[in-house]
Amino acid sequence: MHKKQKTILVTGHSGLLGSEIIGMRNAVGISSNECDLLSKFQCQYTLNGVIKRHNPAIDCVIHCAAKVGGVKANSEFVADFFDNNIRMNMNVLESCKKTSIKLVSILSTCVYPTTKYVSYPLTEDQLHMGPPHKSNFGYAYAKRMLDVQSRAYRDQYGCNFITVIPNNLYGPNDNYDVENGHVIPALVRKFYEAKLHQKPVVSVWGTGDCLREFTFAKDAAKIILWLAENYNGESPVNIGNTDEISIKNLAFMIAKETGYEGEIVFDSSMPEGQLRKPSSNEYLLSLGWVGDYTPIELGLKETVQHFKNHYPKLRGAN
Ligand code: GFB
Fold first, then answer.
1. For 59, which of 6, 122, 196, 318 could close a Cys bridge (C-beta 3.0–4.6 Å)?
2. 182 CA distance to ligand 1 centroid (A)?
3. Is 139 tagged catalytic?
4. For residues 91 and 37, is the Cβ–Cβ distance under 8 A?
5. Cα–Cα distance measured from residue 262 to residue 198, given in angstroms and rounded to the nearest whole number
6. Ligand 1 mean position to 7 CA, how many Å?
7. Ligand 1 close to Cβ of residue 204 (< 6 A)
8. pTM
């Protein structure tokens, strides 16, 4: 990508990550009304047309669109997560190949092999070393194919396709659906509503012992934009904040931030996925990235404040 700023096209621009990227740069989004990325035909005509003819010229596509969800949705709709993601990715990569444009695709640390096949912290070279955790089997294999397809197109067609691997993202513009969403938005909503309706108990899924690394979506957006401008390598790049926190501590922090003072119970009959998936960001640092990550206390504060200001008009909450 040239240093002189042109325009970036962001797929999934209304989502948690895409909306942060759009907010930071001279970027355009493409909505599902304009182009259904699951349709090969629409991508061939509409997406290719936008990439070719947009003025100012588009010189990079950041592909954030994906079917995403929390541990429960991933386990229940395993085929949908595989099917939707693999089809969308095939179509978007094909469009970017045809229009010879730089592409940044997004994976996730949950797609790494499950514990017994890897050593921690997770490094990029371990991505395909064994099967993923069964809780997100479909999503993980579909996302891993982004790496495979990007490398294949790079080798055969010379495409400048790069991939990045965030860990668990969170932030204001999350999906607040408590059944199908991720833990932070689900708990923000559960604790906030429990306080609002004076409910004495809030149930948190699992034992609370699982560890996760959380990255504020704004931080991930900044790093992705930096890599879009400065990185052209074939290896994926882990980009997440590497501080681990237990779900139990996370729940206490969110309860405090929302002002909930009732009882918190841990329901081990609910899915909890992988015990941990700590990642290394050494490769990112070796490339020259120097920014800080937002401490989780501050990220949660901003997220909860946004939630309170906009409730109930939030994605997944109304
Ligand atoms: O956010 P989450 O669904 O992502 O769950 P994963 C993280 C942890 O929080 C799990 C616990 O151990 C859950 O059991 N948890 C506690 C809850 N209460 C809740 C709750 O109310 N809702 C949710 N959702 N979790 C996903 C993958 O796994 O990570 C996806 O399945 C995706 O594929 C994402 O890539 C980043 O880290 O478990």
1. 6
2. 5
3. yes
4. yes
5. 8
6. 34
7. yes
8. 0.97
